[in-house]
Design brief:
Radius of gyration of chain B: 33 Å
Number of strands of chain A: 12
Distance between the termini of chain B: 53 Å
Oligomer: heterodimer
Largest interface: A-B, 49 and 42 residues
Radius of gyration of chain A: 16 Å
Structural class of chain B: mainly beta
Helix content of chain B: under 10%
Order of helices and strands of chain B: HEEEEEEEEHHEEEEEEEEEEEE
Shape of chain B: elongated
Order of helices and strands of chain A: HEEEEEEEEEEEE
Largest sheet of chain B: 12 strands, antiparallel, barrel
Low-confidence stretches of chain A: none
Amino acid sequence: MVTQLLAVVLLALSTPALAGGFSVRSAYTSSYGPDAYGLVHVGAQAGPDLEVGALWVGGNQPALLASAARTLRLHDLLVVRGELLLGMLRREGPSGGFELGARLDAHALTVVVEGGLLAGLGSFAEAGVDTTLAEGWVFQPRLRVETWAGDRDPALRVGLGLRRETASGWWVEVAGSAGGRDVLHMGPGLVLALGRSR
Amino acid sequence: MRFGCLQVLLLASLGASGPVALAGTPATPGGAQAVLLQAAGARLLVELVDPAAPLFPGDEVGVYAADPRRDPRTGELVDGFRYAGDGTVTWRGPLVEVQLTRPGSLREGGALVIGTPLGRPPTPAWRPEPVVAEPEPLASVPAPVAEPPRARSRPLRSALAPLGRDLDGRVLGSVHARHLERFGGRRNALRTWGGFAGDGYDSGAATGGVAWIGRPRRGPARVEVGVEGLRGQRWVQGEGEGDEEWGLEPAVGYWMWSRVDSAGLGLAVFGGLGAGVDADGLALAWMAGVRTGDPDRSRIELWWEDRGGLGARAVLDGRVALADSLRLGVRARLGNLPRHDGDFLQTRADGALVASVDPAPWMTVTLAGGLGGYDLLLPDAGLVADAALEVRW
């Protein structure tokens, strides 16, 4: 059922993807215990400041939600992003939540902070510093605390990511992480994302 | 009166022709009337009031700028022109570029006359001499000095200002102008809609309605008045025992409906009231929400709607413009409409994909389809489908 719904959403949003701005972000996170989840977040963009899409979460607590996000420049150096999510959990029924993020540009470094909360699914907070290694190449170390996939005890993860941007607007991100709730429940994580800026 | 007669006689004696300038209404200098669009140092980009005015690159011209001043006797603002210097026409197209021989202080958006060059330095703008009051010999305490009025502080407006700009800092502009430009100046519309939302348990509601939508030139972005009906069935708990105590009963409501949207592309609020009847008698309804983005293009809307005894729900509706006439998006609704009568989980959700297309500037068709229910299991899912047709004139 979830796969069918996801296929419908992907199919519908593939048109905006072909037309211009879009993003597809997938992730898998394991803690070598009962806590593991994967997610796919598909978004269509109307310019860099507005995005509409859908989020599927699988694993301990599957969920499917519609999402809508707006990005604002509060200052020359500060950009914030807010996202609303509304949908349904596999077993718990309707759910909703939000994500908030901020980017502070300081010459070659960009400080990134984001967090979110989804009723019945959990919450997360993530921080990191983006560093431009070369033209179009960005290094993305991250520190993350999350209770996703079951709203259990917080798990701490560290990750390293690499982002490649092309002049034509395409971008790809690859990131790996490791962590968990304790030394007995630690596991790897992987993030793959690609998109095109309109 | 004496001065007026004297002026007419004087102009007649000088052989003046054309309209006689009356007191307080100065004559316009001879030449081409224009509006200053941009001033970059000594370069002026102007728009001619008469596009056929005989001005060509290379012409030596004099520039006269509208310069209202205050009448020292009455304090009233009096219109007039100031000689702003000579220059050369350097470009002639839909607009005209003039290169002044020396830069002047000109106000963008102000009126200009491009006429005869005088070959003299420009007249400086009038600045009243400051009056310095000499202290009275015996005054020992300085008189209190009135502070100049401070600019009015608008913290809320300042805080919301980023919502009205894009990421490059450009102001998003007026929602009124965008709508008129997009739909050929049509400001009225008739919108009809209908659809069904089920939840997989034979309960759900069909809604439909018709509304007039007006888009004023200023003020609210949209005003809507209409009628709406809801029919369906819902689960109710009766007097029996076990499964027999549950039964389906009709859910019905009809409302007169209104909605007003504030103007704004970055952030707008909207709300409405409804009054009508349902199975319990008088039915009151209301809704309130926020929107970001252009309502006729890419935008996000989040609102809460309450239908009194029949239930309420939250709606998130986001759409992205793929082309001038096509928008795609998603819609999610969480709530209990129609509300059941019993002690069990009533809140359910539905999600739909939404497509909105404008085959012509006078028409918009919107289609939505998806699934709803109490969980993500297909056997528990109900169909959600609705459509709307908007005709503009």
